[in-house]
Amino acid sequence: MAKYNRILLKLSGESLMGAQQYGIDPTRLNEYAEQIKEIADMGVQVGIVIGGGNIFRGLSGASKGFDRYKGDQMGMMATVINSLALSSALEAAGVKSKVLTAIRMEPVGEMYSKPKAIEALEAGYVTIFSAGTGNPYFTTDTGSSLRGIEIEADVMMKGTRVDGIYTADPEKDPTATKFDQITYDEVYQRGLKIMDLTATTMCKENNLPIIVFDMDTPGNLLKVMNGENIGTLVHND
Fold it and tell me: What's this model's pTM, rounded to 2 decimal places?
């Protein structure tokens, strides 16, 4: 029996690069699809937000001379490309999926609305929310917080390259220790960067817990769904 009924899974665009320097690694994409299939087959309702950093990131584009407004729009388009790729991989694995976009762009994807999203989830579709919030100056972390709250998810699962939240960057500080769980208030006090501040605050204020875990190790998503203590749980007091 899965620990959660409905989840919002946040995936990193950069992770889709796998061993490549840019774009989408088919092996990593198919690994993600298989992990998602494992939990969808359990009856878990899965909503997904995926970043676009493997293709284009608005903020880094702005630092290179792009207008921030246009750069963020380009970043939104990058998330749509990744969403379509993941949807294709899921369909190939035998999983029903649907892409909803925050910007109107039929026939690429249907325009997002909460009722449409809930209907798709309850009908057994893995539902991918693309194009962020549809607005510039917001990250896909904020987009995932917003969608997680809107679809009334039990938890947001943030799949990353690291296996949880540490006292410091474990790649730079060998003495860094991992938290099994931590409160939102402590995240603020320690200045930990699990997501941008807007996204973190939205989750705190709407009482949406987050589990940060290593999605790049096949089987980990199923372990989290089975309640195994991997990753870090972020919650209110």
Answer: 0.95
